[in-house]
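Session log. Operator J.P. requested a structure for one protein chain; no other inputs attached. Running the standard single-chain path with token output.
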Amino acid sequence: MSFARGLAERHCNLVLVARSPEPLHAFANELRRSHPVSVIAIQIDLSSPGAGEILAEQLSSGNIPVELLVNNAGFGLRGEFRGLSLSRQLEMLRLNNQAIVELTYSLLPGMLERRQKGIINISSTAGFQPIPFASAYSASKAFLTTFSLALEQELRCAGVTVVTVCPGRLRKIENVGSSQRIRGGWAGVYQSHEEVVLDALRVLANGGGLTVPGALNKFSVFVQRLIPRRLVPRMVAKLSKA
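Structure written below.
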């Protein structure tokens, strides 16, 4: 939602995709009322098999051009791998990885025909280390980060700007815009969705690349490089149990 609002404020026409029709159309109507932009709402569950290709076909058949693809859909599961539902974990992998690969592959030919084109992939700092009790989720974000960074180099000569965004902890949506400030030891740890959007669009305008929003997040990613890789999962496991 924050990406859609940020782009609407910049007078960009939008295609919104979600699996729940009522909130989707309500949000689309809100954007139409508040901004002079075209908003197309498409209801589809991107976690279903082949959903990315189906969505790309709908866009193509409807002659709906895409200049900027924002891969922002995803969710995470927490708990012991053996205790979590296998079907639910596979659903997460389809949404976090398969749908993004399908959409990117299917939409790229049309994007290459346009002067302005870009891709923003929303990954996570969770992708920089194995996370016990979120093993499949951290692995899915590791895949997305490496895929996105490699794609950036492949598409550079084709004029496609690719941004890989790895935020850390985000404030709950209901707290966004609240006048209450986070104080003490948590100050600077949680970021608003708007801050992440601004950072992503800044990097997009500057030619793309990897961005880790927030000084503390950047520091934590840097520190992990100094720790032997075999020790990182042990440390994270202890913190997860605490």
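Operator note: Strands lie at 14-18, 39-43, 68-71, 118-122, 161-165, 209-211.
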